[in-house]
Amino acid sequence: SLNREFAPFVLHRTYTGHFDDVVCIDWAADSETFITGSRDLTAKIYSLDPAPGFPVNLAGHKDTVVGAFLGEDGVAYTISRDGCCVTWKRKDDAEGGGGGGALSRKRGRTSMGWALDTRHFFNQKKAQCACIHKASNLLVVGFSSGIFGLYELPTCNAIHTLSISTHKISTVSVNSTGEWLAFGSERLGQLLVWEWQSETYVLKQQGHAHGMNAVAYSPNGSMQVTGGEDCKVKVWHTSTGFCFITFIEHTAAVRAVEFMHKGNAVVSASLDGTVRAFDLVRYRNFRTLTTPAPTQFISVALDPSDEIVCAGTQDSFEIFVWSMKTGRLLDVLSGHEGPVSCLSFNPLQPVLASSSWDKTVKLWDVFETKAATQTFLHTSDVLCVTYRPDGKELCSSSLDGHVYFWNAIDGKLKGSLEARRDVVGGRKQQDKTSMAAQAAASSFSTVCYSADGTCILAAGNTKWVCIYNVARHICVKKFSVSGNKSLDGVRDQLNSKRMTDAGPLDEIDHDSDDERGDVLDRQDDSLPGARRAGGDDGARKLRLSARTSCVRFSPTGRAWAAATTEGLLIYSLDEVSAFDPLDLDIDVTPARVFQCVEEEAWMDALLMAMRLNESAILRSVYERVPTEDIKLLTQQLPQIYIKRMLDLIAAQATESPHIEFHLKWAEGLLLNHGSHIMAERSTYSAALRSMHMGFSRQFGDVSRLCQNNHYALAYLSLQPSEKVAPSGVAAGAGPALPEVGASGKAKKKERDL
User: Fold this and answer.
1) Is the separation of the CB atoms in 67 and 24 below 8 Å?
2) Is 602 helix (H, G, I), strand (E, B) or coil?
């Protein structure tokens, strides 16, 4: 078939000259030339358009060039993996082109008059990456030992050196002002932003190092919990995508995770033989559930009341039942003849559904009997099972690529669909079969219902995630979780030119021992028995494949998540992104805020004031916003600032007398962002409660004032009307009284007052 692709870039020119992979590239300030570094131990300077004397060859390194940069005034810097930094300068006698003659060549100059000026050594482990800030002449280098160094150019004097990781630093970058440094570690999945002047972390995030196995949503959909092969349990904010807590108590891979129905704790099952419960209020492991004999858990489920915890095993084929309150083992359910691959509780009843590799799905009443109440037979191993949200239907997926729908009440089969052609993925490097043979061996390993129960989400060991309509048994849409062609199972067709007598060319390790990572640098082969006599025959170059371990629908029905090879992916119907990268912009000052106020740029002023987090500045900007602009500002306000805006309104409602002004802000926020606030009630409940208390207090004060005025007006309206004063007597002075000496005048004056 015709492969149609949209190519927004037009190829300008192809440059050749290197004999191995190009590792780095950097442009000059005028964008007329650029420099590249390669594994062939050289760096080359190219001209954007054909010009005499180009490319310029810079040779002199003894290892791979990991960084090459073009400075100002005819200076270039190259950094090699062995920790050597070379400064190259362009001489004046070569401005007109050419090589500068025999004298220049004797002095060590290369073409176009470039010559090696100085060499510097960092005296650290292998250099992995480098970045330069040309405005301030700063060089940042990341090493294989997890240490980074900040150096001043061109002297290469060390300004700052710090160890930030236990593994090698894979990439490094510097912001535009040169004050923040960003580092990434591929092996640990770390992302760090470091301010080197104050020596503080601006951002620190770390994903799962070796892939995710399970994911689960909180009851309100605002949080997600994941379990990975690195023995860690991580909890993430759905709106921001940041991990805010990591639990490291497990000692083996975490295979299943679940949120409690109250949303205040998570439960995880691991291959280390424990089921652990973690508190999300105090962030601690408050319950550890174990068995009399060591076993491995691969599935977990909680009953609707959060009182019972059930976990399925991989080796003993049993289901263990514990009490969450006491931590005691209540029962052991036996009956399966294979690993218990999945567990699911009925949302409305204490009925447990279990799937196993023994080709059955069993229903258990954990409170009444130890035996299975119903058994659903399949034609192949059952990989997963799940209940519909109303508890009346059951869905299971088997190894032969079929998805079955069962009536959970009478146990009858309602229908099935064949999904082998939908789930089949791309070709793998070791595939020796056709696509038709792959389709016959494809299946879904995880399924879940949507919030309304009309659709199911299914995925497996391929790059596809499919959504099916339950009533019509048709595939509604397919999602590709990865386009990374370095993963197995992504390409639809294999290139026969990449196949050699030794196997696929991509699986042949061309790197030296020093380039394979920091593991070989750290292992100690001096001890007896640490090295095999004939070499390590079991060493293989592994290649990850695109797959999805777990999929879950959000309880709100607006999003779903997938735990894949490349991390946690969230697909949402809401197009508003909650992450605001401008939070990491340091060009926000009080002077800039007041300048925006003078220019009547109210949105910019309000956002910058909230980023500064100065209460006086924020209150000043808030009170100067015109009333007619409040409606428009609340519509355009990003969702990540809604909570802070509600907190500000709650604080101002108790301190400021401008009641109508605050009410207009509150009305605009609730009308424009009401659905988002309802979806994340737990996040905004405190702010809404504070705002409600502030307005209630103002309402009480105004009510008492109006009530007092009402009675005062009623009293005054019942008083007799005043008579017209006679001539010579001031109005309102009362009736004229006869004068009786001085005392009478005094009494009259006192009465008038």
Assistant:
1) yes
2) helix
Residue 596 contacts by C-beta under 8 Å, 6 or more apart in sequence?
602, 604, 605, 608
- Tell me the per-residue pLDDT of 664-684, one tens digit each, with 9 for 90 and over: 888 888 888 887 887 777 678
> Cβ atoms within 10 A of the Cβ of 602, count?
20
CA distances for 327 relative to 243, 291, 308, 309, 320, angstroms = 28, 11, 10, 9, 12
Beta bridge partners of 157: 152
Residue ranges of the chain with per-residue pLDDT less than 50: 1-2, 94-109, 512-520, 530, 532-539, 577-579, 581-582, 584, 724, 727-743, 745-747, 749, 753
d(CA 364, CA 381): 19
Q: What is the pLDDT of residue 108?
A: 43
d(CA 502, CA 306): 56
Strand, coil or helix: 273: coil
359-365, Cβ contacts within 8 angstroms, sequence gap of 24 or more: 359/398, 360/336, 361/385, 361/394, 361/396, 361/406, 362/335, 362/336, 363/408, 363/411, 364/319, 364/333
The answer to whether 78 and 61 have CB atoms below 8 angstroms apart is: yes
Radius of gyration of the chain (CA): 36
Cα atoms in the Cβ-side hemisphere of radius 13 Å centred on 489: 22
* Predicted model pTM: 0.70
Q: If DSSP codes are grouped into helix, strand and coil, which group holds residue 357? A: coil
Which tens digit of pLDDT belongs to each residue from 134-166?
A: 989 999 999 998 999 999 988 889 998 888 888
Dump strand ranges (E) for 52-146.
Answer: 56-59, 65-70, 75-80, 84-90, 114-121, 127-133, 138-143
d(CA 438, CA 433): 7
Report how far residue 290's alpha carbon sits from residue 327's, in angstroms, rounded to the nearest whole number: 9
Answer yes or no: are the C-beta atoms of 90 and 113 closer than 8 Å.
yes
Which residue has 């940069």 as its token pair? 69
Q: Answer whether 497's CB lies under 8 Å from 458's CB.
A: no
